[in-house]
Amino acid sequence: MLKHFLTSTLATGLIVTASMAQAFEVTGGDLAFSYGTEQGDPSGQYSVLGSVDTAITDRFGLQFDGAVWTYSGAGVPTLWGVGLHATYAMYPNWDIGLFVTHEDWAGPTQTGYGAEVAYHEGPLSVDAAIGQIDETSSAQFATLSGEYAFAETGRGYSVTAGAFYLDQVVGTMTRLSIGARYGFDNGAYGEIAYIHEDNPFGTDEVLTVNFGIEFGAGTTFNSRLSPVLIPGN
Predict the structure, then answer these.
(1) Which CATH architecture fits 2-229?
(2) CA 63 to CA 220: how far, in whole Å?
């Protein structure tokens, strides 16, 4: 029922938006290259990630996400995914939204959907979401991330932290991350993060490195696609 409601709501938003193409305004976006590797696992993950944020009115908008990723090794296929958020700005500092994602894992596909919230106040940004992934069997997830910038313009050094929880048939996965980011005046940035993961089979240590460029006002929400939710996995 919830999946049908969210999917129908977002699909309706797309139809309405298509008829209001003249009112579309691109407000920002992000394009990044990401690399993640787990300790003891030679198959690193390489990803290209992109998002575009648009405004329909002063409060309603849509955010579009896309990603392609693969793993090192001969014969490894390229995977891809797309995402859509319906966003609502609750002035002055809060945004709420609904999202839906679709991913193709070289044959098998999975769809995700859920609700999200973001908070921005000066140098502090917080992003949180809960959702469900429908694959062979459903899995529920929750994610929370934050960034504190030492320069309110968003340029300069920032510290980042996050938590991720996934409940699936084989057991639960939890991830805690901490990292650093440096932004340049032209919107380019680099960031690095260390992630500690507990899963049904033990523990993993993950290192991720991102290089990208942010334009305009950036994006309202983080992407909910797999290379962003579970980088290096």
Answers:
(1) Beta Barrel (2.40)
(2) 8
